[in-house]
Amino acid sequence: MSEIEIVRGDITEQRVDAIVNAANETLLGGGGVDGAIHRAAGPGLLRECRTLDGCVSGQAKITRGYRLPAKYVIHTVGPVWRGGDAGEAGLLASCYRSSLQLAREHDCAVVAFPAISCGVYGYPLREAAHVSLAAVRKELGQHREPSLIRWVMFDEPTYRAWVNVYDSLGP
Ligand code: APR
């Protein structure tokens, strides 16, 4: 069974095969983790993103990592939280599935995720943690790769939410 880690930190500093970006449908950058990744990767990332023709919510596309220590960036577009009855959970789970499928197709053994949709897009932390951990655990139960999934949490409340839900789920 693959490993899951939950750490505090800055995803742009992660020396892993792929980091996942919480992007928007244009894939042309933004604020939050999207802005941090583009700043750290440099202009080559935006140049490649311009060739991708955007990405719909729940799907993912992959680019090189450029100046980042990570080899690849997997750009996924999370759902905007609209109260929970607009298919948000399914779209969020799909972000993780789509990202992990791309990671497998590119032989990524170690993948780092931020808390997709938990910033500007307003997804409540505990709900997002439940959906995200359930989706990733299901994927890891069906595939041998990636061998390590690391959530990199930029702030303490998000970190605590993921740890509390992870602990409640048991082995
Ligand atoms: N490393 C790890 N996590 C980070 C970093 C970082 N350097 N910077 C921000 N985060 C965290 C936020 O604290 C939040 O927990 O990433 C999580 C996702 O928040 P956002 O970046 O706001 O992403 P999201 O809620 O999915 O909204 C996406 O915001 O930046 C725009 O272009 C983006 O339009 C898109 C929208």
Quickly list its features:
single chain; 171 residues; alpha/beta; Leucine Aminopeptidase, subunit E, domain 1; six-stranded mixed sheet; 6 strands; 39% helix; 19% strand; binds adenosine-5-diphosphoribose
Task: Give a written overview of the molecule.
With about 170 residues, the protein is of the alpha/beta class. It has one domain (about 10-170): Leucine Aminopeptidase, subunit E, domain 1, CATH 3.40.220.10. It has helices spanning about 30-40, 45-50, 90-105, 125-140, 155-170, and strands at about 5-10, 20-25, 60-65, 70-75, 110-115, 150-155. It has a six-stranded mixed β-sheet with strand order 1-6-5-2-4-3, sandwiched between helices. β5 (about 110-115), α4 (about 125-140) and β6 form a beta-alpha-beta unit. α3 packs parallel to α4 (about 125-140) and α4 (about 125-140) packs across α5. The radius of gyration is 14 Å and the shape is globular. The N and C termini lie close together (about 10 Å). The model has no long low-confidence stretch (mean pLDDT about 95). The structure holds adenosine-5-diphosphoribose.
State the major sheet.
Answer: 6 strands, mixed
Model regions low in confidence, pLDDT < 50 over at least 5 residues: none
- The succession of helices and strands, N to C, reads EEHHEEHEHEH
Bound molecules: adenosine-5-diphosphoribose
CATH class: Alpha Beta
- What share of the residues lie within helices? 25-40%
Total number of β-strand segments? 6
CATH topology annotation: Leucine Aminopeptidase, subunit E, domain 1
Q: Indicate the radius of gyration in whole angstroms.
A: 14 Å
Please state how the strands of the largest beta sheet are arranged side by side.
1-6-5-2-4-3
Classify the secondary structure makeup into a structural class.
alpha/beta
